[in-house]
TrEMBL record:
Pathway the protein contributes to: Cell wall biogenesis; peptidoglycan biosynthesis
Organism taxonomic ancestry: Bacteria, Pseudomonadati, Deferribacterota, Deferribacteres, Deferribacterales
Organism: Denitrovibrio acetiphilus (strain DSM 12809 / NBRC 114555 / N2460)
Name the UniProt record assigns to this protein: Probable lipid II flippase MurJ
Family: Belongs to the MurJ/MviN family.
Record-linked InterPro entries: Lipid_II_flippase_MurJ/MviN, MurJ
Presence of the UniProt keyword Iron in the record: no
Localization terms from the record: Cell inner membrane; Cell membrane
Family matches, as Pfam families: MurJ (PF03023)
Amino acid sequence: MSGFIYKVLKSGLGIFTSRIFGLIRDVAVAGFFGASGVTDAFFVAFAIPNLFRAFFAEGALSSAFVPFLSDNMSLKSRQAADNYLTSLIVAVSGMICAILFFTTLFPTQIVTMFMPGYADDADLIAKAASMVVVLMPYLLFVTICALLSGYLNLKGSYYIPSSSTAILNIAMIVGAWIGFQRGIDIMYLCYGVFAGGVLQLVYVMSYAFYKGFRPNLKGGYSRDVRKTFYLVIPSLAGVGINQLNFMVGRILASFLTVGSISYLYYANRLFQFPLGMFAVAVGTVTLTEISRANTEGDLSRRNNLINKAVNAIFIIMLPASTGLIVLAYPIIEIVYARMNFSLSDVGATASALQMYTVGLMFYSMLNVFSRVFHSEKDMKTPVKGAFIALIANIVFNLILIKPMGHAGIALASGIAAGMNCLYLYVKMRDYKYDFMKNIKLLIKIAIACFFMGGATYSLFLAGLNIIPVILIGCIVYFVSLRLTGIHIRSALR
């Protein structure tokens, strides 16, 4: 089991590398361009390739193909695995090229659909349409990266795939800086995305070749490609529903105060930092390891893996949630408040961050629970959960958006994630988390979070800089755990 934790740490370290550069990227974008109608347009335009990315590069396809690739590697041969992966890359690339052709023909109509609140601003819509044309090819680059990353994960390599996004972020930082120097022209940020996608693909592909992958179409397309897409079909519905959840938020935000889309984006990026650095890493390794356990028919190991993943999330995400809620304003201030990002922007972004954080635990658990179903080639159950989340999101958006504005959109997404999480947990086959067995662990974590939250808030009120406040808060939390008898390494071993 220590091997599982080691792989989580490797994946987490890679994601941490990417997130650090992602944070620097967001600081640069906020400082250079602020929060305005132009940044709203960029974030909507960038969301469009990322919408399709959820279909092809993560979630649906990646979760479906890893079990097949694992079977080919373990039960067939290296040549069969290479043939399967090559066939899948060719098939998916053809689909994406068709999407790129369509979006290049109708960029204005597509952008208007995503930000209808700006429909009367023809200049802004035209600028957003130009951005979409430049940004869309990134979808092809990142999708091939994702498929090769699944191959590398099964080869035991987690850091390289997880850290590859750092290259994209570095390219975007350079693009943002050039755009700022040239009259605050945000188009250079789009060029940075394009260049970063190319470099990211070269980085991952080179390591996949080093690990033994060789493109192979001898004997024609692998039959498992058709089986993969057959499995993906119900999962695509689930991903589509999840993306519709985000679309609902963006569409509603476009009718609010100018900059609301940007406030939600900046807050979500900080919210994603702990989620991506740890919860996604746990989910990624869980998918790979449970796929292997299922291939071997080892139900006990499968359940132990889920238990370890759930406990790891409780230990890390509860204090992360506490810290983000208590210190939202000073965190946003120190990260974004410079140059073109005003103090009013800080307050608006901080309120969104607090509301997003309400759902951090639920999103973290979803990363694990959904991967459990995917590893067992059950794509239908997560779709049902996603549909429940969609309905909940729409209902709570309608309830919360008037009294809370853009912060209500963030809170509605967290509540929806909680309902989805509960549904998947109830439907999980042959597994139930033993709350009674772990009740002492959970109480001790809660006590440690209480002391950490109290200490950090008191130090902030006393005027201490936020960076030492966060460091002291971490020390208080881990010392509190130790004093209550919890040894994190032992708890996760």
